[in-house]
Write a structure and sequence with these properties.
Layout lengths: L1 E10 L4 E9 L2 E6 L8 E4 L4 E2 L3 E6 L4 E2 L2 E2 L4 H10 L2 E9 L6 H12 L6 E7 L5 H12 L4 E5 L10 H13 L3 E5 L3 H13 L5 H6 L3 H18 L2 E4 L5 H11 L5 E3 L3 H5 L23 H10 L1
Parallel strand pairs: 1-4, 1-5, 6-9, 9-10, 10-11, 11-12, 12-13, 13-14
Antiparallel strand pairs: 1-2, 2-3, 7-8
Helix pairs in contact: 7-8
Length: 302
């Protein structure tokens, strides 16, 4: 099937012009002015902006977590993404401790197949790196899943230790993949959580105070250092604060390339919201919202 998009304002990586786009199957075959239809379905895009679909590299669809699930299914999540101009999402497969990466992949494929209405791909979160898991990495990459997530927090559920992370990075490096990290210091966070609980400090404010900036800055630096040692391609997810970004800046001084993402909430909201006991729970997330100075640093980084 061919589609001809006529007279739209076409914005690409290197141009901005009013022209036509001819699509055959799922590929763009021509961009130009006054392209002939030659039997293609014609869509008049006059007055509209035509641009590549967005890619959201960090979504959680039907993700099991702490006894519940994230609210979006593959159908509702990908439909919402399309309405916002995002045509591809990358979800996180979570390996269950004691199980294989293959079993996790099949579980997530079962949720997605026949339900997603937009394009999707996967990151593989490795929560139990062992000799068997190591043997699976090559085949998982060959199937098109080239990024592997590590959690430096959530001990007993998702977290792996530094020795496992070194082993994972070394193996992924051999096959040209990427390792990503939820970079927060899980041991320090768990200690602060226990202290606050013992003191009866259970309001949303103490979710924030249990994850101070140092927990993210230290873990981000440690992750970057280990990635530099192993030579693997590195990516830090949902970075929130000045201290963590400074660790990435430090890595660039040794010509290391560390990819970083942040999220819209960290750019627009700040930790003062946790002081509202009635509504603070609405913005509980990990890592938590930060300070105004961190927002300024993130914008500068962008």
């Amino acid at each position: 099937m061919a589609i001809l998009l006529k007279n739209g304002r076409v914005v690409t990586a290197d141009s901005d012009a009013v022209c036509d786009i001819l699509i055959e199957g799922e590929s763009i075959v021509s961009i130009g002015r006054n392209l002939p239809a030659n039997g293609a379905q014609v869509i008049d895009c006059t007055g509209k902006i035509v641009m590549p679909g967005g890619i959201d590299p960090h979504v959680h669809l039907e993700m099991p977590f702490m006894g519940t699930f994230s609210s979006d299914t593959y159908e509702t999540g990908t439909r919402a993404a399309l309405h916002g101009g995002t045509t591809t999402v990358i979800d996180f497969i979570l390996q269950k401790q004691g199980n294989s990466l293959r079993a996790a992949l099949e579980e997530w494929q079962g949720r997605a197949t026949g339900n997603a209405v937009g394009d999707y791909s996967f990151h593989m979160a490795v929560t139990d790196f062992n000799p068997s898991t190591k043997e699976e990495i090559k085949d998982i990459i060959a199937e098109g899943i080239t990024s592997f997530k590590t959690f430096m927090a959530y001990k007993g559920a998702l977290m792996i230790d530094d020795a496992q992370m070194v082993g994972l990075m070394a193996e992924v490096k051999q096959h040209g993949g990427l390792v990503t990290a939820h970079a927060t210091n899980g041991d320090l966070i768990d200690t602060l959580v226990a202290q606050h609980r013992a003191q009866g400090k259970l309001t949303p404010l103490y979710h924030y105070l249990s994850q101070p900036e140092v927990t993210e800055a230290e873990a981000s630096g440690r992750f970057a250092d280990i990635a530099h040692y192993t030579g693997v391609h590195a990516y830090i997810v949902h970075l929130t604060c000045e201290g963590a970004l400074n660790q990435v800046r430090r890595a660039t001084e040794r010509n290391q390339r560390v990819l970083v993402e942040t999220c819209i909430q960290y750019l627009l909201l700040d930790a003062r919201l946790y002081e509202d006991e009635a509504n603070g729970a609405k913005v509980v997330m990990s890592p938590p919202l930060r300070e105004k100075k961190d927002q300024a640093t993130l914008w500068a980084g962008l």
